[in-house]
Design a protein that fits this description.
Number of helices: 0
Shape: globular
CATH class: Mainly Beta
Helix content: under 10%
Order of helices and strands: EEEEEEEEE
Strand content: over 45%
Largest sheet: 4 strands, antiparallel
Distance between the termini: 6 Å
Radius of gyration: 12 Å
Oligomer: single chain
Length: about 90
């Protein structure tokens, strides 16, 4: 079981994460959406496509653009469509 925690709270939990380039990607249904808000940041990966970012907020503490996902990944990354991964502000326990 993998868990993503921020500010002492589990924000995602799954037995079905996909590990890509050392990052756990959590299925969309394993994420506690109430802790996430859209961020205007995007980035482009040559083989995954364009990533969109989310800010995580728990009990008034925020981590800007700390989560990302690929809403329309390139074919090579199709398996992680809409799965969320996290920067180091979020603790991953697996």
């Amino acid at each position: 079981m993998a868990q993503a925690r921020f500010n002492g709270t589990v924000i995602a939990e799954s037995e079905a994460t996909i590990i890509v380039e050392g990052n756990h990607y959590f299925p969309p249904d394993s994420v506690q959406r109430r802790f996430f808000a859209d961020h205007d940041r995007t980035s482009v990966c040559g083989w995954k496509g364009t990533a969109n970012y989310l800010t995580v907020t728990v009990d008034g503490e925020s981590a800007e653009a700390a989560a990302w996902y690929y809403p329309d990944p390139l074919d090579k990354a199709a398996e992680i469509k809409d799965y969320l991964a996290f920067y180091s502000a979020i603790t991953i326990e697996a």
